[in-house]
Amino acid sequence: DARVTQTPRHKVTEMGQEVTMRCQPILGHNTVFWYRQTMMQGLELLAYFRNRAPLDDSGMPKDRFSAEMPDATLATLKIQPSEPRDSAVYFCASIAANSYEQYFGPGTRLTVT
Amino acid sequence: QKEVEQNSGPLSVPEGAIASLNCTYSDRVSQSFFWYRQYSGKSPELIMSIYSNGDKEDGRFTAQLNKASQYVSLLIRDSQPSDSATYLCAVLTDSWGKFQFGAGTQVVVTP
């Protein structure tokens, strides 16, 4: 069945290292979201794309985070350099055209030591 | 000020009882509202959407919307232990699909 996939599922890295997370949206979905979830802040929108074009990335710390969609089947979220406060679960979600039903990926659990 | 407010819980509900979850939002122009369920360690999954004032029923779930009061709720009838999860209220904030999520209400159904 169709689902959003994310890699890696878990990532442990040291402060200062680059982290890249990948997302494959459901085939045919044209809007892709990146969220971050922590106990303290809940689910926060970092950035989202429609037809691969960035619509809003105001939720991202611009100095260290970047999000791209190299093609319709791949979205990436990079953190460089990573910091301990970036430790969280990062979710990717996608929706189809003419729909607002979001389908979430399994998430990437990031731990920065 | 948070735009979408939920009681964090935990809301303890006896098995078979009705669980009632509330959500308020601040943006009066919001038109579309959603409830997601999130099990511990899992990703959110959509369980209900509601766009018009009134009630919408789907199985054991009923969503209620009152736009004048900026209030949306979720009722879970005949609660089961499998309903134990965190329930997130989401409000659509633009026409492209941008959502504002509440912090979630944890529901614990006790046998």
3D structure, described in words:
- The complex is a heterodimer of chains A (113) and B (111).
- Chain A has 113 residues and is mostly beta strands.
- Chain A has no helices and 11 strands.
- Chain A has strands at residues 5-7, 10-13, 19-24, 31-38, 42-50, 53-56, 65-71, 74-79, 88-95, 103-104, 108-112.
- In chain A, the strands form 2 sheets. In chain A, strands 2, 4, 5, 6, 9, 10 and 11 form a 7-stranded mixed beta sheet that branches.
- In chain A, a hairpin with a 7-residue loop joins strand 9 and strand 10 (103-104).
- Chain A is globular and about 40 Å long.
- Chain B is mostly beta strands and 111 residues long.
- Chain B is built from no helices and 11 strands.
- In chain B, strands 2, 4, 5, 9, 10 and 11 form a 6-stranded mixed beta sheet that branches. In chain B, strands 1-3-8-7-6 form a 5-stranded antiparallel beta sheet, with no helix packed on it.
- In chain B, strand 7 (61-66) and strand 8 form a beta hairpin.
- Chain B has strands spanning 4-6, 11-14, 19-25, 33-38, 45-50, 54-58, 61-66, 71-76, 85-92, 99-101, 105-110.
- The N and C termini of chain B lie far apart (37 Å).
- The chains are: A mainly beta (113), B mainly beta (111).
- The interface between A and B is medium-sized, with 19 and 20 residues.
